[in-house]
Specification:
- By secondary structure, the protein is α+β, with helices and mostly antiparallel strands.
- It has eight helices and four strands.
- Strands 2-1-3-4 form a four-stranded mixed beta sheet.
- It is elongated and about 70 Å long.
- About 25% of the residues are buried.
C-alpha cells in the first residue's frame, strides 16, 4: 500500500492545489470519489491492468464518468491514464481528503462509549476537543458495552481513555504494586 501512496501523492497534491486555486474543493472531492469508485469496479480493474492503450483507456474511463467530470477532471484522468496510474485513484482520493481536512483544519475523532451519548454530551465533548486541539472536530461515535462506563476518545495520536474498564485496571495494578 505504501507504494500506491507514493504513486498517488503527486496526483493528490496536484488535484488539491488546483481545487484550492479554483475554489472547487467540494467539486474535486466529488469527482475523485466517483472516479475512485469507477477504478474499484471489477470490470474497470481488468481494463486498467489489461493491454488497453492509454488513449483508449482514458476515453473509456472518461465516457463512464462523463457527467461527473468537468474538462479539468477529464484532463486529470487523461494524464493519469497516460502515465499508467489509474489504479492509484482510490489512494489519490484518500490523500486528497487528508489534505482537504488539514486545509480546513478538521479532525476526525473516534468517541467510543459504554452507552449511546446524548446530543448535549456530544456537543460538550466536541466543544472541549475543539478548544484543546485548536481545530474543528468531526465526532464518529460508537458504543462498546465492554467499557462498563465512561468514554474513550481517539484523535490522531491523542488517546483519552476515561472508561471504567481502564480505571478498574489501573486500580488493580496499583493494589498489586
Amino acid at each position: 500500500m505504501s507504494e500506491m501512496t507514493t504513486i498517488a501523492r503527486p496526483y493528490a497534491k496536484a488535484a488539491f492545489d488546483f481545487a484550492v486555486e479554483k475554489g472547487e474543493m467540494t467539486k474535486w472531492g466529488q469527482m475523485l470519489t466517483f472516479t475512485a469508485e469507477v477504478a474499484n469496479n471489477d470490470d474497470m480493474k481488468e481494463l486498467i491492468n489489461g493491454a488497453v492503450s492509454a488513449p483508449q483507456l482514458s476515453e473509456i474511463f472518461t465516457s463512464v464518468c462523463e457527467e461527473q467530470l468537468d474538462e479539468f477532471g477529464q484532463n486529470f484522468i487523461k494524464v493519469m491514464a497516460e502515465n499508467g496510474r489509474l489504479k492509484a485513484l482510490p489512494s489519490v482520493l484518500e490523500l486528497f481528503l487528508t489534505l482537504q481536512a488539514e486545509h480546513e483544519r478538521v479532525m476526525d475523532v473516534e468517541v467510543t462509549s459504554a452507552v449511546a451519548l446524548s446530543e448535549s454530551q456530544l456537543a460538550n465533548i466536541g466543544t472541549k476537543l475543539e478548544a484543546r486541539l485548536e481545530r474543528k472536530v468531526k465526532l464518529n461515535c460508537s458504543v462498546d458495552e465492554t467499557l462498563l462506563g465512561g468514554v474513550v476518545i481517539r484523535a490522531g495520536d491523542l488517546v483519552i481513555d476515561n472508561s471504567a474498564r481502564t480505571s478498574i485496571r489501573r486500580l488493580s495494578d496499583a493494589l498489586q504494586s
